[in-house]
Amino acid sequence: MVTLGVVVAAPAAQAAVPGQAGPTAGPCQYTPTPDDPPARPVSLPPDPRHTPDRGIITVTLFTNLGLIPLALDRAQAPCTVQSFLHLTRHGFYNRTICHRLTTYPTLKVLQCGDPTGTGEGGPGYSYKDELPTNLPPAPTDPTGVRRIYGRGLLAMANAGPDTNGSQFFLVFADSVLRPNYTVFGAVRPLGLNTLDRIAAGGVAPTPDDPAPVDGAPARRTEILLAI
Predict the structure, then answer these.
(1) What phi and psi values does residue 80 have, to the nearest 5 degrees?
(2) Of the CATH numbers 3.30.1020.10, 6.20.20.10, 2.40.100.10, 3.30.70.100, which one belongs to the domain with range 56-226?
(3) Is 212:80 a contact under the CB 8 Å cutoff?
């Protein structure tokens, strides 16, 4: 399960084709995961010899609860933005739910990007981390390891080192995490308003937990279209 604790290109070094057995030959090395097949059919992303690493790209998530515009920063995480744009352009995120909301004191995020809605699904490939190096330290962490993922950051969820796929999270309030999650952009102000409405509904209660802090959003959130 994926858990927690975004221009014109040079000619591709290796074309991304469905059913490809090995990693792409460019610097991003998008690698098929045969034991974790794609939740929806999608090819490997293009992997040019020089991954575009400049510019801010806007992608908008049209949800049933409002718009969430995102600003993807190629300079922060070129391979991650390349993958996210590829999935967006191929409709991978359309008609998918955001399956997880957390409201812990130190972890306040909305997690999306799995077409199965279970937290288990992905695109059938993985790629390397592009970890942040400039996040402020968490003053409450005596070890000095954890960092503040600030309100509005956009980051990749993962299941361990170099296991990025399609799932991502949106930070609606400052959160404290080890810096093990690639930051690839930010939520624009209009999107923060939508996030706040989702978060205000809290986590949906279950028979075993009437007041959970981790689970499906009580206000069901569906990405109708990502463009």
Answers:
(1) -70, -45
(2) 2.40.100.10
(3) no
Residues facing residue 61 across a β-bridge: 68, 226
Of 9, 133, 154, the closest CA to residue 82 belongs to 9
Instruction: Specify the pTM.
Output: 0.92
Domain boundaries, the chain: 56-226
- 32 within 8 A of 23, measured Cβ to Cβ: yes
CA gap 62, 76 in Å, rounded: 24
Task: Give the total residue count for the chain.
Answer: 227
Residue 2: predicted pLDDT: 66
Structure confidence at residue 127 (pLDDT): 99
- pLDDT, one tens digit per residue, over 3-42 is 665 322 222 333 334 456 799 999 999 999 999 999 999 9
pLDDT digits (tens, 9 = 90+) for 91-119: 999 999 999 999 999 999 999 999 999 99
